[in-house]
Amino acid sequence: MAKSKSDKPAAAGIKKAVLAYSGGLDTSVILPWLRENYGCEVICYAADLGQGVELEGVREKAKLCGAKAIVVEDLRKTFVEDYLWRMLKAGAVYEHEYLLGTSIARPLIAARQVAAARQFGADALAHGATGKGNDQVRFELTYQALAPDLKVIVPWRDPRWTLTSREAAIDYAKVHNVPIRQTKKRIYSEDGNLWHLSHEGAELEDPWNEPKDQVFTISSTIEKAPAKAAYVAIEFVRGVPVAVDGKKLDGVAIMQKLNALGGKHGVGHADMVENRLVGIKSRGVYETPGGAILYKAHRMLESICLERDMMHYKQQVALRYTELVYYGQWFHPLREALDAFIDKTQQTVTGTARVKLYKGSIVPAGVKSPHSLYSEGLASFTMGQEYNPADAGGFIRCFGLPMKVYAQAQGVGKKAKKAKK
Where do the CATH 3.40.50.620 domains begin and end in the chain? Predict the structure, then answer.
């Protein structure tokens, strides 16, 4: 392992930096790079959001690569209850498909990284996000909101940074004896947590290429999914999942159970070209098995519990909420204000939704709620006393009056009569 020179002055007066450290390829090589180029102490901060194997041996690895200290914090409960459930209640989905698994995680990581910087008396924060991506924005907006006094180190925007490809980073790791799991045969850029696993890079950079089977690592491909369907029922209280198949579970356990079940049946795959905040179109493949089940079940329950105008306006709010999450503006006061509205809409979203999982599909299989607005008597094709069809005539005439007046002003009826003559 190459050591930084003891007589090398700290760049820009930085003596101690806290690095958002995942143990993945980028941050693994950034750790020794920071010591070599900035001559400062580096403290690693790693957040356990349920990514599993990625954090194995992360403490030993950070120390081996020269970290002064490393903090590994279990944030799974906070992640689920204070971030994922808020996003679920809002119904936030970016560009119809992306369930925001990476987007929602970054503000939490950055916020706790700031807390670590305060604890260790650091004067700088560092992250490994690239200069082309969204994550640099998400990290740094959180820094601005919570620690505007601290300096920020971004290696990918530093003129001394020469590791401009994943292949170059792998070569750097070998030279500096940095242990990594990535190889040039599987060189995807991946991010995982309790909500999802994302895949970018390699052959996926060409949108004409279908993802290889090896891409999907926490869920089955459609072809390998069971030929027999499975049913699962999710119980909600005020929009928050509380039980699966009648068994009360905490948020982390719910995600683990639904990820396992959904992954087995190949649900929650998204393959899309999305519009990054920085203006670049990027192709990503996402696995979100448990999240996709919850979104479907939650929408089903809202369909019977929310009044029409409330539901339609909430759909508009969801679009803005989605942007706030995707753009990294979690700590924006608008997000907090929208949460107040969303919580109001969820007061009656209590009940159970049942879905059927089959080869990549999530099919509604029943929904019920004590607050249901659905009336079988009103909805039935059999006419009853609950609804007088004659009322519809006057309503339609009043509702369509502006259209009728406009048509008359354009001479629609008169033109038709002249045409007959």
Answer: 11-75+100-186
Q: Is 3.40.50.620 the CATH number for 11-75+100-186?
A: yes
Residues spanned by CATH 3.90.1260.10 within the chain? 196-306+349-368
Among 76, 106, 283, 335, the one annotated catalytic = 106
CB count, 10 Å around CB of 396?
10
One of 4, 103, 189, 282 is an active-site residue; which one?
189
Task: Tell me the average pLDDT across 333-345.
Answer: 98
Q: Would you call 65 helix, strand, or coil by DSSP?
A: coil
Question: Pick the catalytic residue: 112, 135, 198, 335?
Answer: 135
Residues 355-368 have a mean pLDDT of 98
pLDDT of residue 113: 98
CB atoms within 10 A of CB 245: 14
How big is the chain, counted in residues?
421
- 106 catalytic, yes or no? yes
The half-sphere exposure of 162 on its side-chain side, counting CA atoms within 13 A, is: 4
CA distance 293 to 336: 26
pLDDT by residue (tens digit) across 383-415? 667 778 888 999 999 999 999 999 999 999 776
26 has catalytic annotation? yes
Choosing from 26, 103, 198, 220, the catalytic residue is 26
pLDDT tens digits for 20-76?
Answer: 998 888 888 999 999 989 999 999 999 999 998 878 889 998 998 889 999 999 999
- The fold of the 196-306+349-368 domain, in CATH, is Argininosuccinate synthetase, chain A, domain 2 (3.90.1260)
pLDDT in tens, 269-316: 999 999 999 999 999 999 999 999 999 999 999 999 999 999 999 999
User: How distant, in Å, are the alpha carbons of 130, 139, 190, 274, 345 from that of 278?
Assistant: 11, 14, 19, 11, 33
Angle, to 10 degrees, between the axis of helix 289-305 and the axis of helix 251-264? 110
**Known catalytic membership, residue 189:** yes
